[in-house]
Amino acid sequence: MIKVLLINLLLINFLFASPKIYNAYALTISDENGKKEHIQNKRETDSDFNGTCFVEIFVNTKYKVEMPKVTIGTAIGHFKSSKSVYKNKIKVGEIMVFKLYNIRKGYLKITIYDKLYDMKTFIK
């Protein structure tokens, strides 16, 4: 009886617990030709990324989260792929790739659940 009650409590806690997102940030940006630039600790890109580009981001969480919204200026990112990251067999996050069209210039923004996580890099 106690085991059933404990299992039910754990199940309810798991189902209704909100996912804890520790942080989310951009890793790289690349153009259609494969020219890639690491932007994790940069304030501004070295190269111009006009037109279509791909942005790779990292979301540090153990749970499945709402799809992040990635934008550069007025261009909105379209989700392409995702890969889970594990450390010692424990999930620590997701690396996600987004494709953006008609890039001009602007700040790269990452938002999840309407909360801003990254907006430090200016894309030329």
Describe what is shown at a glance.
The protein is mostly beta strands. Helix content is 12%, strand content 55%. Strand 1 (21-31) and strand 2 form a beta hairpin.
Write up what this structure looks like.
The structure is a single chain. The chain has one helix at residues 2-16; strands at 21-31, 36-38, 51-61, 69-72, 75-76, 78-87, 90-103, 106-112, 115-118, 122-123. The model has no long low-confidence stretch (mean pLDDT 88). The chain is mainly beta and 124 residues long. Helix content is 12%, strand content 55%. Strand 8 (106-112) and strand 9 form a beta hairpin. The protein has 1 helix and 10 strands; from the N terminus they run H-E-E-E-E-E-E-E-E-E-E. The strands form 2 sheets. Strands 2-1-3-7-6 form a 5-stranded antiparallel sheet, with no helix packed on it. Strands 4, 5, 8, 9 and 10 form a 5-stranded antiparallel sheet that branches.
User: What is the residue-averaged pLDDT?
Assistant: 88
Strand order of the largest sheet: 2-1-3-7-6
Order of helices and strands: HEEEEEEEEEE
* Structural class based on helices, strands and sheet pairing: mainly beta
Distance between the termini: 63 Å
Unreliable segments (pLDDT under 50, ≥5 consecutive)? none
Shape descriptor reads elongated
Oligomer: single chain
Number of helices: 1
Helical content class = 10-25%
Rounded to an integer, what's the Rg over CA atoms?
A: 18 Å
Total strand count, please? 10
The main β sheet shows up as: 5 strands, antiparallel
* Percentage of residues in strands: over 45%
